[in-house]
Specification:
alpha/beta; about 25% strand; single chain
Length: about 200
């Protein structure tokens, strides 16, 4: 029992010392290619046996994914934001990196919760596509310490070209969904640098 507390203390010190802002700027061409959208599910818990080990799995068993914040002068539709939010949560659940992936996590005394923040910095709806700039961040819910963030800008193809005059049209969001899930995956299971 004593060695578990020592190990937990060492890991906690390492996490807190790693707590700093690291900026990553992804290029638009780095967005993954579209693939079929997975059906959303309200299930927020993965069985312990399905959870894959990762860099911080001993400390964080829950990922909170609150609704997207919008700082863009012309915001996308509420329908678009909700569809994007649900698709991102489902894609992250499919990775099995956390026991819980929830919209709102209960505050805990000793932590255990990471928060994925997403802010839409700009949105420009055109007849054939929508250009989006988004900032993603991962922070510790208990300390509000941001571990990492990334900003990316790219175009989402419009699915319903017939409704081009409407600002609430449907867009191919899967590249953005996969890119967001890859951001979380890269933080939790980083690929070692190759020489």
């Amino acid at each position: 029992m004593f060695w578990k507390r020592c190990l937990f203390g060492i890991v906690s010190i390492l996490v807190l010392s790693a707590c700093g802002t690291t900026q990553h700027t992804a290029q638009p061409h780095a967005m993954p290619q579209p693939s079929p959208i997975a059906a959303s599910s309200e299930t927020s818990m993965a069985p312990d046996s399905d959870v894959r080990s990762s860099r911080y799995s001993m400390l964080f068993d829950t990922l909170e994914v609150p609704p997207l914040k919008v700082e863009a002068q012309t915001p996308p539709s509420e329908e678009f934001l909700e569809q994007l939010h649900q698709a991102v949560m489902q894609q992250i659940r499919n990775q099995h990196l956390f026991t819980h992936v929830v919209t709102k996590a209960e505050p805990r005394v000793l932590g255990g919760v990471l928060t994925l923040t997403a802010i839409i910095l700009s949105w420009d709806a055109q007849p054939d596509e929508g250009t989006i700039e988004i900032r993603l961040g991962i922070e510790d819910m208990g300390t509000s310490c941001e571990f990492t963030y990334a900003t990316t800008k790219g175009a989402l193809k419009r699915i319903d070209a017939a409704a081009a005059g409407s600002s609430t049209g449907q867009y191919e969001i899967q590249p953005l969904v996969e890119g967001t899930a890859a951001f979380v995956h890269g933080f939790m299971r980083p690929v070692p640098y190759q020489l």
